[in-house]
Fold:
Amino acid sequence: MEITSDMLISGGLTFAAAIGYGICFNIRGANLFAASFGAFICAFIEAVMTEAGYPEIFVCFIASTAVTVYSEILAKRLRCPVPMFLIVSIIPLVPGGYIYYAMMSCINGDLADFGKRSVYTFEIAGAIALGIFLVTFIIKIMKSFKKNPAKKNR
Amino acid sequence: MNSQELAGAVSRFGAMMLSCGGEINRVEDSIARICAAYGYNHVGVFAIPRTLIITVTENGVPVTRLENIKDKTVNLDRVARLNALSRFICRVRPDADCISRRLDNIEKSPVYGRYSIIAAYFLSASAYAMFFGGGIREAAAAGLAGIAVRLMSRFSSKTDAGVFFENLLCAVVMSACAMLLAACGFAPRYDKTIIGALMTLVPGVTLTNGARDFIAGDFFAGTYTLIEALLTALGIAAGAAVTVGLLRGLVV
Structure:
């Protein structure tokens, strides 16, 4: 398994796109670059794992988990809300292609293909959401463990 | 600080946070924390994406504020500043004047200019067009379509037509732009152009915030937000599908 230039290019493209996306939401300064780097990580993981032959749903789940961890760490470090980083980083996983081709088969009257692609889109959305859910739950549990000893000491 | 002042300050704080795209749970949580910092433990907060109700009770006398949020513009920098302000308030417990001065400052905090945002739409759309397999020409066409999206969304957000039709309009303009550029032979693979420009319309903020509201256990706000995202997506899909279906004949 080697890192090809294609992976870095797709990462770089999403980085550029994420900068644009971040500007639309008025993310400023270092936060903008930190958030966009999340998009780079996301697209890079996606490219590497797809190359290694993992199924797409699983790739989306892992990438979204990784990006959520990244966003939580950054939010802690830079003392900013998590969504600032998460929103921009998670966008490369949005299955834009599937949505478009599902739509096209809908207007072409190819209902079988439309159904297949729409279900697949929802599966990917579910995988992304599951990644976010998982990490957020783990962090909640960790926080609740951290708080308890402090309360006992008081 | 008395309950009148506190209710006024926190309702303004909460309304600002809701209008710039903070999650419902964050708004409710911050307000409860601020009130607790001033010793008001009996506080009721209810927030949904466009309404905020707060009741602060002092000596058995309730003070209620209701805020309606008319215009929403996503501004994550402002959410971060408000978040930092809420930490500051809990730590220092300043008086009402200080809070309102800081809120004024946050309202005046810098935003990107009109042309930077247009450039951002261009950059985003063209980079995504290439990411989804388009060439340089498709990227340039997607960038132009992205600019059309921006110009249209500024207009459509003023029409008060609701998320579905606002996004439908944007998608129609965007795909018409892509189809015309394909028809004149500039970027023949219009599917890549449209996918790239479509990514600028993806309801990323509502989706992420809706999911986070669900995790926080706020199913009502989560459902509301996710339905907004779903309507946005349906509007985009419908607009693009109709336009491509109509103009497909132009592209040979």
